[in-house]
Design brief:
- The chain is α+β, with helices and mostly antiparallel strands.
- It contains 4 helices and 6 strands.
- Strands 1, 2, 3 and 4 form a 4-stranded mixed sheet that branches. The protein has a two-stranded antiparallel ribbon with strand order 5-6.
- Strand 5 and strand 6 form a beta hairpin.
- The protein starts with a strand and ends in a 6-residue tail after the last strand.
């Protein structure tokens, strides 16, 4: 796993996109858990006259957690790094569920929709030992 700068239509540069890379054949692809979200983000962005850049970790929960673990973790094996990412995802899911509860109590539908989207971004990794877990704000 690595993080790359991805260009889109020579107008937009998106930094810190999680990439899976094979050192043997040098094949690279966007990490499965963020691929659809990245495509949706690209389609939603305006093509300005002047090129501009974004940091993908500002738009995607999983990318943010993976980047933080990848750059700051003291884990010394892939399994330890994976476990740390899973643990951080679960902690973030719990935090988002708390935020969702506050937004629901306040009747803030817009904030609730945003939190649901962020929870959906993390649902790709909310699976441990083959046993799927379902997180729901309701």
């Amino acid at each position: 796993m690595d993080f790359r700068l991805v260009g889109y239509k020579k107008h937009i540069s998106i930094d810190n996109v999680p990439i899976l890379a094979c050192p043997g054949c040098e094949h690279e692809e966007v990490m499965f858990g963020v691929r659809k979200d990245l495509q949706a983000l690209l389609l939603s962005l305006p093509l300005e006259e002047e090129p501009y850049g974004l940091d993908y970790t500002d738009f995607n929960e999983l990318a943010c957690i993976a980047y933080t673990a990848f750059t700051c973790s003291e884990a010394d094996t892939k399994d330890a790094l994976r476990a740390e990412i899973l643990e951080n995802c679960e902690a973030r899911i719990n935090t988002l569920l708390d935020f969702y509860s506050f937004a629901r109590e306040a009747g803030d539908q817009e904030r609730m929709a945003e939190i649901e989207q962020r929870l959906a971004q993390l649902s790709a990794v909310a699976c441990e030992s083959g046993a799927a877990r379902r997180y729901s704000p309701v």
